[in-house]
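re: the backbone from monday

yeah here it is again, tokenized this time
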């Protein structure tokens, strides 16, 4: 059996952004860049166009499809990462508001007669995981 090249294996484990878990994704994407030895976090200092393009394209590929067109307007990796962080990372106030909204959803949680018990359970588990 033929083994995959390191580039193929690395692309296969690229962390994809879950909008509700931005901080974890940011940590993972930074580690991915460091471990792939592309020197992607040092793009500005090296001013290497090839590495700049790799960084930008890697970040774009790590975004869910529905968000890629919104962030494609950023022409460099630094501004792209800042935009992603601004959109999904939020600040302390927005995170607190988001937690409050999730708590309200939890308090008002109910199932409908058209849902199965499994569907209700899945929705509740998702809500609880977002609260943690």
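seq for it, each position gets an aa:
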């Amino acid at each position: 059996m033929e083994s995959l090249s390191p580039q193929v294996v690395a692309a296969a484990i690229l962390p994809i952004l879950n909008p509700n878990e931005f901080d974890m994704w940011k940590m993972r994407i930074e580690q991915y860049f460091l471990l792939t030895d592309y020197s992607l976090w040092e793009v500005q200092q090296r001013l290497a166009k090839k590495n700049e393009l790799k960084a930008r394209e890697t970040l774009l590929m790590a975004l869910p499809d529905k968000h890629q067109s919104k962030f494609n307007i950023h022409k460099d990796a630094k501004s792209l990462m800042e935009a992603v962080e601004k959109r999904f990372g939020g600040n302390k106030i927005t995170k607190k508001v988001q937690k409050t909204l999730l708590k309200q959803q939890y308090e008002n949680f109910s199932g409908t007669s058209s849902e199965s018990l499994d569907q209700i359970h899945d929705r509740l588990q998702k809500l609880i995981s977002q609260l943690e």
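The chain has two domains: 6-89, 92-131. The CA atoms of residues 33 and 41 lie 7 Å apart.
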